[in-house]
User: Fold this.
Amino acid sequence: MKLLSLGFGVLVCLNISACGADKTRLETKETPSIYDAQLAQKLGADEYGMRSYVLVILKTGPMDAKITDAAERAELFNGHFANMERLAAEKKLVLAGPFSEDKDKRGLLIFNVESLEDAQVLVQTDPAVAAGIFTPELVKYYGSAALMQINDVHGKLQKTQF
Assistant:
């Protein structure tokens, strides 16, 4: 599953708001000479090279401890991974991955959608969410339009699939 190993380093300070700055108060500078207008348009970038997404934190849901049958859990998680693969292939899922040390917060998803409602529809297609193993928390996210290239680049880096 290529989505599991997508890096989180890209998320660091790409969200201007999370870094303590408001995009309306940033000092503007000349466009760098490396600016690629065609690529910016293709990726849906605004003048800052950014775009809107919806970030989803998957938290441990109320049924996680109650669904203990190994075969049932395997089926739900196989569906969870297959759903992420499908959404990534459709360019709706930009980034996904697990958290390694938090028992309440299990992972994240970043959707290429404009509204929380659109993301809610997509996240409900996840069998593990539908079964209550995960509970999603959704928030609007403003980040680099370069995130749209992660799945394409990741395939070139992945030697072994999960």
Remarks:
- The domain at 2-7+47-152 is CATH 3.30.70.1060 (Alpha-Beta Plaits).
- The two ends are 5 Å apart (CA to CA).
